[in-house]
């Protein structure tokens, strides 16, 4: 782990220079924020409230430390806040309707001998993790869109903006879904070896819970792209006046 962290730091410095160091520090700060979120949730604070506050800090750290151009960071942060509020509603409805919070039957062997009465709502925990899991996708899409639109400036056309929109959404969706299938491949093989029928897989608590996390991130990206464009264009019109 230490070797990989050092390799990451060296590569980020070689590729990004001073900005690479800033990005690495942002990653370190976000790591401590995630640890703080877990400690606060375990300490009895509302998981949803903790996730929302930590989410604000994570977005601010990620966006403002990932770019030195305030013209890009400002609109991207505003758009990210709007999207995060909307995604929180989507996550709440998704978790509430799916009833996938807690542990599945496949976890019973690992949990044997342990108590699950930890005094924290598993439904709230899943809402919190669902929200926190979308922040990286939101920040990345917001910064990419803001930088692209601002770079085009007055030369921006509807076709050019549409190209930016479709490209960012398409690449983000592929990244998220390939990451999901790659990380979930062991369970897929397990399902196949045990000859799970399709209906049982689609109703499996672990599978649905993980798939929802990916869908939350995809929805977040789809909302982020037009929202960021709208914020940037509004800002540009205001500056022109």
Automatic annotation (TrEMBL):
Pfam families membership: YibE_F
Keyword vocabulary terms for this entry: Membrane, Transmembrane, Transmembrane helix
Residues annotated as transmembrane: 27-60, 72-97, 117-150, 171-191, 211-232
PANTHER family given in the database record: MEMBRANE PROTEIN, MEMBRANE PROTEIN-RELATED
Name of the featured protein: Membrane protein
Protein source organism: Lacticaseibacillus manihotivorans DSM 13343 = JCM 12514
């Amino acid at each position: 782990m230490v070797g990989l962290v050092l390799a990451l730091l060296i590569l980020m410095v070689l590729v990004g220079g001073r900005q690479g160091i800033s990005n690495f520090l942002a990653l370190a700060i976000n790591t401590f924020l995630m640890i703080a979120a877990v400690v606060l949730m375990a300490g009895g604070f509302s998981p949803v409230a903790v996730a929302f506050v930590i989410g604000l800090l994570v977005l601010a750290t990620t966006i403002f430390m990932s770019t030195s151009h305030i013209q890009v960071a400002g609109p991207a942060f505003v758009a990210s806040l709007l999207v995060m509020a909307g995604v929180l509603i989507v996550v709440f409805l998704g978790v509430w309707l799916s009833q996938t919070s807690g542990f599945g039957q496949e976890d019973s062997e690992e949990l044997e001998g342990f108590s699950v009465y930890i005094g924290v709502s598993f439904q709230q925990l899943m809402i919190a993790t669902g929200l926190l899991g979308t922040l990286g996708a939101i920040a990345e899409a917001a910064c990419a869109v803001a930088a692209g639109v601002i770079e085009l400036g007055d030369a921006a056309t509807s076709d050019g903006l549409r190209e930016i929109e479709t490209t960012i959404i398409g690449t983000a969706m592929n990244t998220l879904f390939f990451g999901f299938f790659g990380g979930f491949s062991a369970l897929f093989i397990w399902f196949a070896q045990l000859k799970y029928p399709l209906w049982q897989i689609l109703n499996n608590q672990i599978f649905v819970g993980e798939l929802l996390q990916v869908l939350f991130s995809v929805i977040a990206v789809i909302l982020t792209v037009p929202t960021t464009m709208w914020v940037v264009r509004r800002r540009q019109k205001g500056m022109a006046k």
